[in-house]
Design brief:
Belongs to the ATG9 family. The chain has helices spanning 45-57, 61-87, 91-94, 122-128, 131-168, 181-195, 206-213, 215-225, 246-258, 280-323, 335-340, 348-367, 372-398, 408-424, 435-446, 451-455, 460-467, 473-495, 499-508, 527-530, 551-562, 570-599, 604-613, 615-627, 636-643, 677-685, 704-719; strands at 8-10, 99-102, 108-111, 232-235, 239-242, 264-266, 269-270, 331-333, 470-472, 510-513, 517-520, 670-672, 701-703. It has 720 residues and is mostly helical. It has a domain at 372-420. It starts with 7 loop residues before the first strand and ends with a helix.
């Protein structure tokens, strides 16, 4: 990274002579030296780069336009279908077991009911709609108009991005699935030199663009890391609950980042008073008032929002639960987990790639906690409900008139659902349990966890803490369903008293970066300012300024892996070199031990024990167990290794290599071979075992697979 990156100013020392000045005036003289073009001097680079990223990830305009219009249609459909079901259906006639009519001779017979018979005429349907329904329709219509305006605006802006991709980046829509984000990023950096997208810097760096795209997301990640978020509430019987629902998260972002009374006066600049300590008390009172008003507004709108959430739940999940009830017993990374595990400056597709790889190990870890009581109970329900379900289905197949029996279809659906859910709770009898090792397999991909988890991975305390990050799907659905009800109370009674913490956080952890604006200081990944000596950082900042769980150090390592051409600042280079030097020293110690054991066989046992105590040896062992785990037959890394074609790098150039579906890959597909922690470890640890890690044969090339393995190893090593 160029030295200009660290030309940021502390907020307390910032000049207040000209509050309208966003950046140093001397930099604006650069504009006279740059050729004017259509893409010069973009006004809102945050939005521009974010749209460039989303355009790439969505593979162009067709899917973006389709998404916008289907979202609009979904609102109309849900609203009118709900009104139709409430006011236009004759339920008294629909729920009759039979429709008996008489002819002119008073002969009674059963007439088959048709769809037309149970639907009211249009005029009667309209007359049935009362004031409450009309009021709801008006609210939905206003919301729909707002979404329509937003959709038109988004489509217009993405049309500009499409033009930018084609005319400036020379990337056509059909090519997007076969181009990595890293390649788009390189073209953006070249565009700065040619068209000068940013007026305030001569050159942009990868970190500049990431800081702009993830400006507010980095603040959220830092708040979670510092313990300000998420809301944690102690509830009798249930214990401590983490309530970071999508509704609360939306309200929080509205309140702090882009709402009319937000601390940020625009997308790149914090309001000046938040940078001045003397304004602290005034800002705390102002923020408390804003939180209270937002909480009251949420409370007033909660009935409408709750009904909307309920309708979406019924329409989206009823059919899925009926077909596959076990989906409720599946798990997902919680909103809290996604922020807890997220690195600073990590884009969505990079996070999704890591968490997808960690999903299977995480499921296996939690499956190792077998409850015999629950297992026996689940087998009982599988037997009883499954038997009833099977018999009723067979009777229906034999005679379809059986289905006309009252509530029979309900019994079939309920018993099938119970049997499916119960079956998902029965553990695999062929599963091999190594709880501690499974935790390391999870760590290799998620990169973060408290040190205490490693030593007590088999305890229910650790298991319960991990469940907060990796929750049941039905828990997530329940939280989202109840979110309109609980969010107002969280805002008023939990968030409002913490206004002082939020004001102090924004003042203490915001820096002004040249050419970028105000960003979270943690996002600079400065080990000197936010490093921790426990994680190999040489600096020793105040404890209140240290990132927890090695977040600064691991974020830096991850950013280097995903952006290998990034020019690191001096402090970051020193940290990376120190990490490699320690690995080299341990590697040398292992090699000396091996030589000594060969010369003196009597010392073999003690030397082997010493070697296993080395962090390097432990880490390579954990990574090998991940790749070759018997419990991971479809492990992503292992399947990638087995299916990876063996290219002849001497005969083929990059352009001749087959590609496809690479838009969501972390980092570049290929980079120049560099010394990595994994290569250092392999040089020594291959002598400890006849089985090493299978890497690609390219002599001067590092593949995306090798890069991913090295990041896994780096996370394991730094935790040791």
């Amino acid at each position: 990274m160029s030295t200009s990156i660290h030309q940021y100013r502390g907020l307390n020392a910032q000049s207040t002579d000209n509050e309208e000045e966003d950046y140093p005036p001397q930099l604006t003289t650069l504009t006279h030296e740059i050729e004017k073009s259509k893409w010069s001097h973009i006004d809102d680079l945050d939005e521009f780069f974010a749209r460039v990223y989303h355009y790439h990830q969505n593979h162009g305009m067709p899917s973006l336009i389709l998404t916008e219009f289907l979202n609009l249609f979904q609102i109309v459909f849900l609203a009118f279908f709900s009104v139709f079901m409430l006011e236009c259906v004759n339920y008294n006639f629909l729920f009759q077991s039979q429709h008996v009519i008489s002819d002119k001779k008073n002969n009674s017979f059963v007439e088959k009911r048709s769809l037309h018979d149970v639907i009211y005429p249009l005029n009667q349907c309209v007359n049935n709609v009362d004031f409450k329904i009309w009021f709801s329709i008006v609210i939905v219509f206003i919301f729909w108009v707002f979404r329509l305006i937003k959709a038109i605006y988004n489509i217009a802006r993405y049309a500009e991005i499409r033009s930018f991709y084609i005319s400036a980046l020379n990337i056509h829509t059909n090519d997007l699935p076969n181009i990595t984000w890293n390649e788009v990023l390189e073209k953006l950096l070249q565009m700065q030199k040619k068209h000068h997208l940013c007026i305030h810097k001569q050159e942009l760096t990868e970190l500049d663009i990431y800081n702009r795209i993830l400006r507010f997301r980095n603040y959220l990640v830092a708040m979670v890391n510092q313990g300000i978020l998420p809301p944690k509430i102690d509830v009798p019987i249930f214990g401590q609950l983490v309530l970071l629902t999508t509704g609360f998260k939306y309200n929080f972002e509205f309140l702090f980042f882009w709402g009319p009374f937000a601390p940020f006066q625009n997308c790149y600049q914090l309001r000046h008073e938040y940078k001045v300590y003397s304004k602290r008390a005034e800002l705390i009172a102002e923020l408390s008032k804003s939180i209270l008003l937002l909480g009251i507004l949420n409370l007033i709108l909660s009935p409408v929002i709750f009904v909307w959430q309920l309708l979406q739940f019924l329409y989206n999940y009823t059919d899925l639960i009926k077909r596959d009830p076990s989906v409720l017993g599946s798990r997902r990374w919680s909103n809290y987990g996604r922020l807890y595990f997220r690195h600073f400056n990590e884009l969505d597709h990079e996070l999704d790639a890591r968490l997808s790889k960690a999903y299977r190990p995480a499921m296996n870890y939690l499956s190792s906690f077998v409850s015999k009581f629950l297992s026996v109970l689940a087998k009982f329900f599988v037997l009883t409900c499954g038997t009833i379900f099977a018999v009723l289905v067979l009777l229906t197949i034999y005679d379809e008139d059986v289905i006309n029996i009252e509530h029979l279809l309900t019994i079939i659906s309920v018993t099938g659902a119970i049997a499916g859910i119960a079956r998902s709770l029965i553990p695999d009898e062929n599963f091999v349990f190594f709880t501690d090792q499974m935790m390391f397999q999870v760590l290799a991909h998620v990169h973060y966890m408290p040190d205490s988890w490693k030593e007590h991975a088999n305890s229910y305390i650790v298991r319960d803490e991990f469940v907060k990050l990796f929750q049941y799907k039905f828990v997530y659905l329940l939280e989202e369903l109840l979110s309109p009800i609980i969010t107002p109370f969280i805002l008023i009674f939990w968030l409002r008293p913490r206004a002082v913490n939020l004001v102090d956080f924004l003042r203490n952890f915001t820096v002004d970066v040249v050419g970028v604006g105000d960003v979270c200081s943690f996002a600079q990944m400065d080990t000197k300012r936010h490093g921790n000596p426990r994680w190999l950082s040489k600096a020793n900042p105040k404890k209140s300024h240290q990132a927890r769980n090695g977040k600064t150090e691991l974020s830096l390592i991850h950013f280097v892996h995903t952006n290998p051409k990034w020019k690191l600042p001096a402090e970051s280079i020193a940290f990376i070199d120190q990490l490699k030097d320690q690995a080299i020293r341990e590697s040398s110690t292992i090699e000396q031990s091996i030589t000594k054991s060969i010369n003196d066989p009597k010392t073999t046992d003690s030397i082997t024990e010493q070697k296993m105590e080395q962090s390097l040896t432990k880490s390579i062992y954990h990574l090998q167990s991940l790749v070759y785990s018997p419990n991971l037959p479809s492990n992503l890394i292992k399947s990638s290794i087995n299916s990876q074609p063996q290219y002849d790098f001497q005969m083929q150039s990059f352009g001749q290599m087959p590609r496809g579906g690479v838009s969501r890959i972390e980092g570049p597909l290929f980079t120049n071979k560099q010394q990595t922690l994994l290569s250092i470890a392999q040089a020594s640890t291959l002598q400890l075992s006849s089985q090493g890690l299978p890497l690609m044969p390219g002599p001067n090339i590092t593949t995306a697979l090798e890069n991913s393995l090295d990041m896994c190893f780096s996370a394991l090593y730094i935790h040791e």
